[in-house]
Amino acid sequence: MGLHEWSLGGVLLSPMAAYAVLALLLTGVVRLGLQRVGLAQWIWHEALFDCALFVCVLAAVIAVLAT
């Protein structure tokens, strides 16, 4: 896919917007999985964990898709 801008109706969109949306969805899936397994009780600061998890997932999405 690469890190090139997309033209949608004459408007240039950054691929980071799509990567961020995908990372947000994947972060939600991971959080639901952690809650169902029972590991969410070990999270000390949920907001900090969510932010760090989002950054890690976003980095993984960019590493996989932006080749």
Report what the structure shows.
This is DUF1656 domain-containing protein. Pfam families: DUF1656. InterPro entries: DUF1656. Keywords: Cell membrane, Membrane, Transmembrane, Transmembrane helix. Helix 1 packs across helix 2. The termini are close together. The chain has a two-stranded antiparallel ribbon. With 67 residues, the chain is mostly helical. It has 2 helices and 2 strands, in the order ββαα. The chain has one domain. 64% of the residues lie in helices and 9% in strands. The radius of gyration is 15 Å and the shape is elongated.
List the helices and strands and how they pair.
Blueprint: E1 6-8, E2 11-13, H1 15-37, H2 46-65
Antiparallel strand pairs: 1-2
Helix pairs in contact: 1-2
